[in-house]
Sequence to fold (80 residues):
Amino acid sequence: MARYVPTSVAIREVEVKTGQDVRELGLYVSDCCLQEMRFGKDDSFSRCPRCLRLCEWEPVEAVAAWQEMAASKHDGYERA
Ligand SMILES: [Zn+2]
Fold:
């Protein structure tokens, strides 16, 4: 499945794994099956809901944020 993730913008320490405590509530997506799950502050990251394996979770909001940033930057270049 194609994912819009440039190699130059590495996902840093925000990536978390099954069993870790949730530090920031929000919407996360599993690395293996791209299943979206919402975790709260008192949760710990679960297994992937689809394949039930240990997985890594990426925060969706963070991805959306830089996409928005890239889009507005591009738009700025176009207009300038
Ligand atoms: Zn999975």
User: Anything to note?
Assistant: The first strand starts at residue 16 and ends at 17. The helical segments are 60-79. The CA atoms of residues 9 and 66 lie 9 Å apart. The pocket of zinc ion is lined by residues 30, 32-33, 48, 50-51, 53, 55 (CB under 6 Å).
